[in-house]
Amino acid sequence: MPPVSNNLREILSQLPAGVKLVAVSKFQPLESVREAYNAGQRRFGESRADELAAKAIAMPGDTVWHFIGHLQTNKVRRVVASAGVIESIDSERVLRAVSAEAVRAGRVIDIFLQAHVAAEDTKTGFLPSELPAAAELAAELPGVRVVGLMGMASNTDDEQRITADFAELAALSRRLQQIIPSATELSMGMSGDWPLAVAQGATIVRIGSAIFGSRN
Q: E strand or H helix at 64, and its extent?
């Protein structure tokens, strides 16, 4: 496996202009994150509050941390203290908790509403029918700023199903923008399917193993 910096450059060379990369660094050692940072990467994705907090302290201040894992309400304070962006707002309870904690911390945090379109029940997020009400609530809360929609495709090798999931997420993103016009980001696509996501309009892709290799 080539070094992290080589993998990073290879992916960046393939991403269209305007599509941002979140390097998913969860479960990866700090040395690998530093190598990506030294190669110019600034956005990193973490899914556990404690790991995020430890890495945020150890890395330079201009690193932008995206929290991308399922967020439990008892971890909200820790995540709000370290993350620049929370992509995984998947329930009204979490939405209210994040806003309240951000207000307590004297900040407004950028968030994505997570939509659930995949075949697996294990994935979380707002159902398409629930999204408008969640968006209207988020628009009223003082501690959050909705910047876009996040979602995942079904875990399958069927590219038609994956493409259909991404197309549905893109349609939901347009619905979200009717309620919150500034929520223009669409975060979808991972190491195995990001080209399909970009083809359907992703503005952010979340890539881990294709940059860092297999997780430890």
A: strand 64-67
> 207: exposed, middle or buried (C-beta count within 10 Å: 0-12, 13-18, 19+)?
buried
Q: Which helix (H) or strand (E) holds 97?
A: helix 92-104
pLDDT in tens, 152-167: 999 999 999 999 999 9
Label residues 68-78 b or e (16+ Cβ within 10 Å = b).
bbbbeeebbbb
Instruction: State how far the Cα of 54 lies from the Cα of 51, in Å rounded to an integer.
Output: 5
**Helices then strands (H, E): number in the chain?**
9, 8
Please enumerate in sequence order all residues whose Cβ is within 8 A of that of 2, keeping only pairs 6 or more positions apart, or say none: none
Q: What predicted TM-score, i.e. pTM, was given to this entire model?
A: 0.95
* Paired tokens of 188: 């979808």
The length of the chain is: 216
